[in-house]
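Standup, Tuesday
Yesterday: got the pipeline producing structure tokens again.
Today: sanity-check two examples.
Blockers: none.

Example 1:
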Amino acid sequence: MPNSSPKPRSSTARGRPGDLPVAVSLGEPAGIGPEVILKAWLARREEALPPFIVVGDAGFLKQLAEKLSLNVPVRPCEAEAAAEAFDSALPVYQTGAALKAAPGRPHADDAVHVVEFIRTGVDLVLAGKASALTTAPINKHALYAAGFEHPGHTEFLGELAQQHTGSTVHPVMMLAGPQLRTIPVTVHIALKEVPAALTAEAIVTTCRIAAKDLAARFAITAPRLAVSGLNPHAGEAGAMGKEDDTIVRPAIEALQGEGIDAFGPVPADTLFHAAARRRYDTAICMYHDQALIPVKTLAFDDTVNVTLGLPFVRTSPDHGTAFDIAGTGTANPASMIAALRMAGAMAKNAVPVSGDRA
């Protein structure tokens, strides 16, 4: 399958006046998000990263850089000046927040600021001041306690996009690694609830969005979608469940009738080995773990969470806040680096495509 976003061989990572930066929401300040952002800036040239601007608290980032002995100059600035500043300092769009968290120790007062960082990042992109949004991990428990009503980033971004466009938005979560892309049709629900929640309409809608955005954002002219079965052996003609014949197969037939290159249902246990992956550009899976386990197994540190179906580009590192290692200086920035690089490439419809296509 196509490589999601291979590392370029060389770059100066030097912005030019007028370049649009990627907006990066700071995320949960007590987690590893701020640390991997600092480390990503240090790796900006070696990793050929696009210019980016952090939406957050400059003072907090300065203190953390000093604590971790990271030589990162932090410079508050407007988005319009970020690209020019990026080579010599980490630009920060200051929202007025004065964060109170310490590494590994969230503070309840910070939750409202974490939400504002995301909202402001979206505003910058929709105002044409940033090219894309990359979000650092959030602590959902802390946000829920502060009245946050969404299951996670994806749903919140969908609401913000819907408010902006005035039309229905269906955000779709895609996990993109160097060897595999996967999309779950049902996401953050209990496994026992999946069969009732899974519908042919949901599969068709997910696949339409996937096909559209793979073409628009990843430069894949005719995306190939492998659709997994829900049950073992894709139901084995009804012997292990009827959903594959009554829900999944009719959805695939409808997609094919629209000219979308979808096939299946494919038994999940034969969908992810190397030869199988060469047959498709993205695997459409029926539930969360069916999609996330294989992509994280193949590339845990380099997988990127991408939200499709939005009127802007959004990526995120595919890891959590990792409170247990926050502040120790040991956080791996690889997924944040991959998320930033992919955001820049998606904004230009220039995600590199390589690898064999059957």
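Example 2:
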Amino acid sequence: MSRLAGRYDEDDVRVRPNRRGSRPRSKDRPAHEEAVPGFVTAVDRGRWTVLVEAAGKGRNAQPERTVTAMRARELGRKGIVVGDHVGLVGDTSGSPDALARIVRVEPRRSVLRRTADDTDAVERVIVANADQMVIVSALANPEPRPRLIDRCLVAAYDADLDPLLVLTKADLVDPADFLANYAPLEVPYVVTSSDDDFSLGLDELRDRLTDRISVLVGHSGVGKSTLVNALVPGTDRATGDVNDVTGRGRHTSTSAVALPLANGGWVIDTPGVRSFGLAHVDPDRIIENFPDLSPGTANCPRGCTHDEEECALDAWVEGGHAGPAGPSRLASLRRLLASRTEGREEHRREER
């Protein structure tokens, strides 16, 4: 036995720790105080196009530039969409081979969402920080889809976006009858022609878009991309024809893109939609946009859907509290509420 054996016990043995995982991972993340602010204008297969404004003076001055960026690992799966204001680190020079990292997404002023259908709990963010939704619909070729328009209005009200209805191809069909359905909602509108230069209504539309961030929505074939090409010359957004058999347009825009307007503001072109799920929308958010009717819900029974016999809105309107337009306004409100629930009822019928 060694002469040292009696001098030490197991407490004196120093065990070498396992290096992997020996230090707890810090929950603190870098502040990235030096991050350069930018505005996301496009998303494509894991790469974001970000506009960085001019900054600095003298030798350190950097011009306005477009930067390609990836999402930093620390953001995890956090969604980044067109319209987001972000913080960038890395190579923000904007050179062809440069790649920056998005390390921060600033708080959003507004979020436009939709779900795949009215039973889907997963919300899909379309754009961030817009302040106006431009709902584009053709009056003919393809035929207008009032139900989709109603759903877009509901989504606009839920996101606190100002709605604007733009009707194209007014030289083919008189828009008066169609607009009469939306008069009680007091939705502003612009009527345009079907020619390539939009000789009718284009100047008025430009005025309504100036200094605002506007997102264009509508189903395929209604002329969204043609409008964008007229508003932002040189954009060359792809346009498509309407199928003579189905009456539907062909998808031409495959992703959202933000484009600057000459007089200030941005227009965001989005892919054509054929459905607009509203599973995420709270009915109270819709009613808030009817200030002449919302006080009348105070006496509604608990859980009132506002289309039942006990609904207090009928008495409110009959008492003249909503003004002479009350009956038509109430009918429009109930039409919008119905547009939210129709999809769910159809799904239940299919399950049976």
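Quick observation on example 2: The longest helix spans residues 326-351. The longest strand covers residues 36-44.
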